[in-house]
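## retry 2 of 3
previous attempt timed out at serialization; input unchanged, resubmitting
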Amino acid sequence: MAKTLVHALALTPLAILAWQFWSVLHTGSDALGADPVAEVEHRTGLWALRMLMITLAITPLRQLTGQSVLIRFRRMLGLYAFFYACLHLASYLVLDLQGYWTQIFEEIAKRPYITVGFTAWLLLVPLAVTSTQGWIRRLGRRWGQLHKAIYAVGVLAVLHFWWLVKSDIREPLLYAAILAVLLGWRLARRLNRNRTAATR
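## retry succeeded, writing output
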């Protein structure tokens, strides 16, 4: 029941966006504002970033609350982050470049915010592929080492958002602050463990 609720909540932004996009196409409404393509790209990217932040928040929340059940949702939320990141990239390729996909390589080389965004997506691909129980068993301890790449993904995703925004940086600054807290928590816990181990 809980997983069904999480699925429903995670897909709600997409359902709203799809309905608004359909409305724009068939009725000519302004549900997505003056630039529907930019709005689709912005929202899918924003939800990819939000899902990524929620995924990174699971471990600190579990440690603070003692609710180990939260771990059950971490992989699911991580996959939703990848799902929205794929939609973000697809909307750029299909709606913005309009099929001229080879142009993406020129854009990656020319625009730093696309470079870091595409790099973040590439790093997410092996994490999504190896998210199954079978891959966890095959990789053993290396699985945990591989999935630490999510920290780099978080940094690159926030940087992508920051560089994309040209004037008002308050929103990317908020996500940068959230990421700093989430990564800072992990660093503090690790340093504390090292100090504890050194005094034994």
